[in-house]
Amino acid sequence: PDKLLIVVTPTYNRAFQAYYLNRLGQVLRLLRPPLLWIVVEMNAASIETSMILRNMGVAYRHLVCDNNKSAAIKDRGVHQRNTAIEHIETHKLDGIVYFADDDNVYTLELLQRMRDIRRFGTWPVGMMAQSKNKAVLEGPICSGNEVIGWHTNEKSKRVRRFHVDMSGFAFNSTILWDPKRWRRPTSAPIRQLDTVKEGFQQETSFIEQVVEDEAQMEGVPGGCDRIMNWHLHLESSHGMFDYPTGWMLQQHNV
Ligand code: UDP
């Protein structure tokens, strides 16, 4: 049987949310099961998100991250991803885990290829940013499936060990509860991700808890010569996607 694919998506209500979640849900629908879409909101589940999930035709779990009521920082979904990881650990969901932000664009090919990952897979991501200082590509340079280097940029080069975008890697969930089998670098719980506040180090500090070095990674596909997903940076740079005045949102509990 095919490996379970566990897609983790932090999300929140904003004018483009329905557009984003539908776009992502529709590519997930094209994938052969088994697939589980874990969608996580902060503080409360919204009716908007529930409705979209219910009608998507994809197996899903709608979770709420409520352990961080005081956090005013915009953490780009860190706590929500941790909620999903806790859920995967608690229920020992055995599959390939992928962090898919709601606003990025993913090909079916990417999702299909993830099933071949044994331990930790990584690939280059197309970075669609308006800033000229940002890399066009982030992720591995490979010789076959071996990772031999990284596409990077001046700004992130000094602070990152691994130059991977959040949407540029996936891993076997058994790494979370079976560190010995996988020679995981630390026995500390992965939830340490919480301590990282913002910016470039988020991904690398997570990855450093799962693999020791490039030798434990698999470049996907061999040669890493394909772009299979794109990371958009639109909202953070513009305030133009706000709800129209008077728009109302309701909260409810799942
Ligand atoms: N996100 C969220 N709450 C927030 C900010 C972001 O749930 O307050 C989610 C967002 O929906 C996306 C992910 O976290 O799935 C990454 O957010 P964003 O795209 O803003 O980060 P960037 O692309 O700038 O890294």
Automatic annotation (TrEMBL):
Membrane topology summary: Single-pass type II membrane protein
Biological process, per Gene Ontology: cell wall organization; glucuronoxylan biosynthetic process; plant-type secondary cell wall biogenesis
Enzyme Commission (EC) number: 2.4.-.-
Signal peptide boundaries: none
Entry GO MF terms: galactosylgalactosylxylosylprotein 3-beta-glucuronosyltransferase activity; metal ion binding; xylosyltransferase activity
Primary localization class, coarse: Golgi
Residues marked Interaction with galactose moiety of substrate glycoprotein (site): 138
GO cellular component terms attached to this protein's record: Golgi membrane
Taxonomic source organism: Genlisea aurea
The protein's name in its UniProt record: Glycosyltransferases
